[in-house]
Amino acid sequence: MQEITQHYTRSRELSIQVGLNGFSFVVFDISPGMGGEAILRSVAYRDTDMASILAREPMLTATDPPLNRVFVGGSTDDVLLVPQPLFEPERAEQYLVAANMYVPGMTTLSNNLLSSQAAAVWQADSGLVAGLLQLYPGALFYHPLLLELDTTPTNHVHAVLDGDLVHLTVCHSGLYAAETLRADTPEELLYYIQKFVKHDGFTSYRLILTGEGAEQLRGFFIRYFNEVDAREIRFYNHQRVREICV
User: Strands (DSSP E) along 60-218, which ranges?
Assistant: First the structure.
């Protein structure tokens, strides 16, 4: 995928992610004049001051060309997965209360559209959510942990690097474990992975590292896994959610 700056697009798609590391967005051109798909703009900010960001990024509020789709990812480790057969959207807040994860004054969000395995329930700043909905009434809110639940290969651990967070999915014959967690060092991430798989000692797991910084971690993890597939991809979640929502 190429990045371009010339504004010749007829239709766009916007992906936004808000999390511990601030605010990032990617504007995709879905009908570029020179063929193929292109990224018009990709930016990461270390803050979530929407008013300031919108003032600096007119493309986020431009109406011409139109936005075809908008995705809003909430990257937080305070997320609850609910098995699909048990999930009822109207009870999303109750799930958080039962898990002792509910924070009064915040907006409860959920998504059960991206995975056949589970739905995700999480919370976000109410003012931020209201502002985004005002700008993008049809936006799809999602949590990045959902993106790999259905596609992690058998006998693999998939770690999606997302700044200070890691979205971790473990698959044996089926989905074995999944969690978003904070991991500041490779040793800390290894600890969590080993904690997940320690009860399945007969399986030889392979590791997939995806995201910015994956190549740098390969040398560390190859000492503990027979196979490590490092996929150095910037803005991975922004691209992945669009693939799933074709």
Answer: 67-75, 79-83, 107-111, 118-124, 140-142, 156-162, 165-171, 175-182, 206-210
